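retry 2 of 3: previous attempt timed out while embedding copper (II) ion. Reduced batch size to 1 and resubmitted. Inputs unchanged:
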Amino acid sequence: MQIFSLNFLGIFVLVALKGTVTAVAHTVGINYTIDVTGLDPDQAPYKYHIHLRPVPENGDCLETGGHLDSYVRGDTPPCDSSMPQTCEVGDLSGKYGTVSGPDVKKEFNDPYTAMNIIQLGYIGNRSIVFHDASGARIACATLVKVEEDEVEEENEAEEESE
Ligand SMILES: [Cu+2]
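retry 2 succeeded.
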């Protein structure tokens, strides 16, 4: 099942927010795990999206471009979480809920983003960006492909526990 062993990891560095976003291919779409600390509860709620471009070396989240929006839907009207198929593909918080803080551990499956480069919702070499309540981009991380054997080990451990 090689095709299911692709995995992307975003690691936040040099900002108050620390932690990871892990994206693991699922039978349909991607299973995400957000595991971060350091969100200021006074600036909540936080939104998080897949943005088009990776984070540049200077770390400027503004340079990650707009949301992954494979169908050019735009962000007006806002995403209705009861109809996630109508939202921007990259609008993860619109589909699965904003987060507060200071610590966040959140898991969800998103059937609209994809691991396969030929699919419209492909997330490779894109970024995940957190916005505070004002909309400011407070943290961003490039989604980088992780070595497959690491993922396979995880999968094996998972199978054993099932
Ligand atoms: Cu965003």
